[in-house]
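WARN retry 2 of 3 for item q-0093 after timeout on previous attempt; input resubmitted unchanged.
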Amino acid sequence: MLGGGTKLDIIPNNQRPICLDLTRLLSRTGLVHTGVDRVEWAYLEWCLSLKRPVFGLVRSAFGYLLLDRAGMAFAHTHLRPADWGKPDLLSRFALKASPVRRAAEADLRRQTIARATPSRLAKMLRANLPADTLYLNTGHSNLTRRVFGAFRSLETAQTVVLIHDMIPLDWPEYQRDGAVARFEKRMRIVAENADALICNSEQTKRDCEKHMGKFGRMPPAIVAHLGVEMAALADVALPQIPTPYVITVGTIEPRKNHGFLLDLWERWEDPPHLLICGNRGWKNEYVFARLDAAKANGAAITELNGLEDAHLMGLIKGAKVALFPSLAEGYGLPQIEALSLGTPIICNDLDIYREVLAEFPVYAETSSAYVWRTEIEKLLRKDSDDFGRVDENQAQYIPPSWDAHFNLVLKHFG
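OK item q-0093 returned
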């Protein structure tokens, strides 16, 4: 599905070399992956599966690193779970980088086919990449005029950026200090320079059109829903949570609206156990204080941070219902995962949920705590055999697939 103010003039040649930006994954090495990280990871695995030339570009503390397929495979092996060697002498001068990132950059420098200072990036790309390379940026890191200009210096290279959402511009009050200005600067650079966009939803494309139109240019765009590939549940020891329990998943930041659930639980005389899974974020000190107080007072609430995927999936599977009162969302990977695991969900009535999840969730406005409690109580009474269904006649939920996503990307760009 195409959109935007100009014609999409990228012509697939079926063997176009791909250069994937891996800067975001490098910056997140050693940390639990967020939704954006998981998308870039999926793109890395997809690139390694292709029978065509693939490259990885990384912005490091001392310039740019260019990896070939072997270097990308090395990165794939070591990024998770941050299995790096020792920092080299150069890394010791990266004073702002964490020890694990210093070690990662040292190892990746040994794997490069080329390195360049920022001023020589274009020369490095011209010397090592085919002229028709497709540059893909999926992590919103390294979106600079320097990078776009360097790829333009190749004869027929094309630059494509995956947009996850425009939430910082629509909900600035929920962002970290300085984050809105940084995000707007990146999106202005994308609007000015990108050859095309991949939007993860129709909602995101509409938001791009609204904001980038104000910036002066909306690049041509396709819509490709993000995939979710559900692996078999790992046999891992899970934290012991009182049963029955309900779960909510997501960074504990204002947009996720955890305060609504805390209000609901405080007024509930005999509530089920509420499991809150997610790292503590920003601008949410009042909620953090309430969580600390709940723990001290023995409330029916447990907070778990830093969970690996295997543990998180097991906990979602064991929950009676997953709750998502978010005020805004870019896509909703945890919601898709919950439905895919057969766990019913209740969520705020957002357009993005309607687009991606259709009628499988129970939709409830967060203006009515009574409705939420009533719907939770209904699902607590339901037999587990009914999980993952809207009603007895509804087909089982089938998540969007990465195969479908990448087929669209190759159809339009590859």
